[in-house]
Design a protein that fits this description.
single chain, 298 residues, alpha/beta, Conserved hypothetical protein from pyrococcus furiosus pfu- 392566-001, ParB domain, 6-stranded mixed sheet, 10 helices, elongated, ParB/Sulfiredoxin_sf
Amino acid sequence: MRRDTGFPRADAEYDFLRSRRRQVLARLAVWLRREPDDVNVMLPFDEVLAALGQRGQRRLGLRVLRLDSIVGSVDRTRDFDRRFRPTSARVRERWERLALARRRGESVPPIDVYRIGDLHFVKDGHHRVSVALAQGLDTIDAYVTEVVTMLNAGDIRFRGDLTVKNDRRLFLERVPLQGEARASISLPDAWRYTELSESVEAWGFRLMQDEGRFLDRPTVAMRWYAEEFTPVLAMLRQADLIGDRTDAEAYLAVGEERYRLMRTHRWDDDVIAAVHRSTAPRRTGRRRKETGSLGDGS
C-alpha cells in the first residue's frame, strides 16, 4: 500500500487516481464473473421511490451516517458507481479540491441525504462522499430527510430488485391486504404478482356474483385471504404440494395445474388428489436425482 508523501496536494491527486483505478477494476471483475450489469450501479432515488410508493417525509436534522449505508443518488448516478468511485475524469478537479481540503484538516460541510428505511440517497454532497470513502473514513455528517414509503426498503440490494418491489406495490393496491396477511404474500418473480392480482380479482368477481352484491377491494382481499388462500394452503401442506416454493408461489402453481386438469375453480379432496398425481412423477424424479447426487459424495 502506498504511504502518504506528506505533500497534501500530491496525496489528494493520488487519492483520485486510486479511486478511479478501483472503479475500473471493479467493472472488469463484474464482466469476468458475468454478474448482472446493475451490481455496481448506484440506486436512483426516483426509481426506488416509484417502486416503494411515497407516503410522506420529515426533516430529521443533522445526523452521523455510516458511509456504507449510502447507496444511491437523486441525480448523479452516472458520475459515480455504487461505492461512489468516480466513473470518469469529468469530476476530477472538484474531487481533488475536496480531497486536498480534507487532507489539510479544513472544515467540510455536511452532505444532504434522503433516508428510506436504512438506505440513504445523496441529494447534495456526492464528491464529499466519494472522497471520504477513498480516504478510508467510516462515517460522515449529513442533514437527513426521512421518506416514509408504502413498502419496506430492507431487501433492496440492486436496481433489478426494484421491479419486484414495484409489482408488489401494484399488487397491494389492487389487493389491499393488511398485517399478517400482507406479510405472508411473497413472490420472487415480479410478473407473478400481476398474475396473483388477476386471480384474486377473478375470485372476488365470482364471490360478488354468488352473493348478488358489490364488495370493495379491502373486503375482497380480506375474504380471499381468509376463505380461499388460507384453507387452500392448509390442503396443499397436507398433500405435500408446496415444496421449496413460497406459499403464494405454490398457490398459483397448483391453481394453474388444477385448472389445466379439471377446468374448475373449486378446491376439494378430488382436485387435490388429481393435482398430486399429475405432479408426482416430477417430484419423484427430483428426489431420485437429489438422492443420486448425495450418493456420489457431492
